[in-house]
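Hi there,

I know you've been waiting on this one. I reran it after we fixed the sequence typo, so this is the corrected version. Both the input and the resulting structure follow.
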Amino acid sequence: MTKIEFTGERFVPDKSPPRLEAEHRSRYEFAGRFMEGQRVLDIGCGEGYGSYMMIAFARSVVGVDINERAIRHAKEMYESTNLSFTAADVASLPFSDGEFTACVCFEVIEHIENPDAMLSEARRVLDPKGIFIVSTPNGAVRVSSRPNPFHAREFNLKGFRQLLEKYFPSDEWSMEILGQFQKGKAYSKSGVMLMNMYLGLKGSLGIRPREESSAGLSRPSEPKKPVSQYEFASTQAELAEYLIAVIQGRRQ
């Protein structure tokens, strides 16, 4: 079996921190409600856990990722007659125009130098009546005292919308951008501002994030705590740690 280790860049089930796992899985659970009977492309599928989750709803799922080791792992780990994996650059997808009725792309766009090329390809392979669900961290909300070294660029709500509208204009596509919120947690502009100031101060003083203080960035050996639950809402999306856009073709 091809082994995939958690380095901080790529989510790996059972090796990443519990909260990170809850965040990632909740996005695929959210997307599942749109995937009934769809031909789905999972862009930047990583080690394949999310592609596998969606076969419970979709007609078929193809996972694609540039990392060949991750794709080998996915092929070995997840098997189904309606699931396949392909190693390819997300900026040059090996699929026909309009081949898929749905595309998902979670926590990928911030990692690549040329997100325009990826979005252009996503639109090309997506049926004009299809659905595209894409997420990214909210660059306006800090979650660590130091910048993420794996991110090429981060987007706030306005920048995320402007980028997506270049390839999915409003006369052809409807778009709703939601925030991914932790259930039971209060969000406010003043609270986000104070947290950003606090984390910024820690960063300026060189205080390392707690999760990075142990060797190997591995899951702590302490007893597991209940993982956080998440909900998605457009109200105050600019305050959420993650943004998720639901884009649907208007053509009939």
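Quick highlight: The longest helix spans residues 189-204.

Best,
R. S.
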